[in-house]
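Hi V.,

Quick status before I head out on leave. The structure for the redesign project is tokenized and pasted below; the design run finished overnight.
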């Protein structure tokens, strides 16, 4: 497994993000890309969001925006 690459995501108001910055991270694990999106204050209680089969972490956009004011939200996109 190689080191994760961290990058800032540009999320527009149309994506539902208005007040809390979000950071995306991706890593290759056994030849597959695993992505994660984090938002909120790292000092807050962590909240992990996992999507179902055939979905993606972008499905959590509205929930991440609303929850990131109270939690450190982590949404994972598993292959």
């Amino acid at each position: 497994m190689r080191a994760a690459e961290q990058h800032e995501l540009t999320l527009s108001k149309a994506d539902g993000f208005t007040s809390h910055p979000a950071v995306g991270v991706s890593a290759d694990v056994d030849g597959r890309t695993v992505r994660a999106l984090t938002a909120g204050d790292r000092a807050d209680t962590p909240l992990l969001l996992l999507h179902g089969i055939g979905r993606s972490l972008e499905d959590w956009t509205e929930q991440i925006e609303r929850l990131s004011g109270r939690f450190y939200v982590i949404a994972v996109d598993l292959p």
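Above is the designed sequence. The chain has a mean pLDDT of 75.

G. will cover questions while I'm gone.

Best,
W.
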